[in-house]
TrEMBL record:
Residues 107-205 form the Fe2OG dioxygenase domain. It comes from the Bacteria. The keyword Iron applies. PROSITE patterns: FE2OG_OXY (PS51471). Keywords: Dioxygenase, Iron, Metal-binding, Oxidoreductase, Vitamin C. InterPro entries: Oxoglu/Fe-dep_dioxygenase_dom, Pro_4_hyd_alph, Pro_4_hyd_alph_FE2OG_OXY. This is Oxidoreductase domain protein. Gene3D superfamilies: q2cbj1_9rhob like domain (2.60.120.620). It comes from Caenispirillum salinarum AK4. The keyword Iron applies. SUPFAM superfamilies: Clavaminate synthase-like (SSF51197). SMART domains: P4Hc. GO terms for molecular function: dioxygenase activity; iron ion binding; L-ascorbic acid binding; oxidoreductase activity, acting on paired donors, with incorporation or reduction of molecular oxygen.
């Protein structure tokens, strides 16, 4: 089912005001603070733990390859206990796309990814672009990742982007979303203490190329 984004004027003046600084300084990626509160992040993490426990034994949620080591749980955009998360992400994507990127987007064709990078396995995700070589990931246009963890709870684990010729670390404040074109190179550095959690959503549309 294709999901249509709520294009048009923002619901309130607030999201636009929040994006004023990033509009003023064009760059390849933008940070949107306060998409989720600390309490929201706690709720999402609790949900993650419940879903991960339910899925244990059914789906092995460990993604391990040469470029990546993380634990993943998928969230439905429409399920009763996750729709509020999807609604908040949709609003953030619509605002940031309208104000900053201006991409042709049609909707969300993949579930929301809840990711966990654990220091016990030096969880990481090496440099990559989110646009896949086949299937639905081919039409990813805008990537958005939310910092769910308190930065005091882990070391390492920085989200870095290279959109201007050199790596830049994104802000790690809890509840901040980082939006970037899905073709942009980014990585998550190895976590050396604690756990870093993130929420990742991709928005799709006609392919760039
Ligand atoms: O954990 C993050 O913040 C980013 C994850 C990521 O790049 C991905 O899942 O494609
Ligand atoms: Fe990525």
């Amino acid at each position: 089912m294709e999901r249509v984004l709520p294009w048009g004027p923002p619901a309130a003046a607030d999201p636009v005001d929040r994006l004023a600084p990033v509009r003023a300084e064009p760059r390849g990626w933008v940070a949107v603070p306060g998409v989720f509160s600390a309490e929201d992040c706690d709720r999402i993490v609790a949900l993650r733990d419940r879903l991960a426990a339910e899925a244990a034994g059914l789906v092995n949620g460990v993604s391990t390859s040469a470029v990546r080591r993380s634990h993943i749980v998928w969230l439905d955009h429409d399920a009763p206990d996750t729709a509020w998360i999807a609604a908040r992400l949709t609003r953030a994507v619509a605002d940031v796309n309208r104000e900053v990127f201006g991409f042709a987007l049609t909707g969300f064709d993949e579930e929301i990814q809840l990711t966990e990078y654990r220091s016990e396995v030096a969880g990481f995700y090496d440099w990559h672009s989110d646009i896949g070589g086949r299937g639905i990931p081919q039409s990813r246009k805008l990537s958005l990742t939310v910092q769910l963890s308190d930065p005091a709870d882990y070391d390492g684990g920085a989200l870095e982007l290279n959109t201007r010729g050199e790596p830049e670390a994104a802000p790690s404040d809890r509840g901040t979303a980082i939006a970037f074109p899905s073709y942009a190179l980014h990585r998550v550095a190895p976590v050396t203490r604690g756990i870093r959690r993130s929420l990742v959503v991709w928005t799709h549309g006609p392919r760039f190329v």
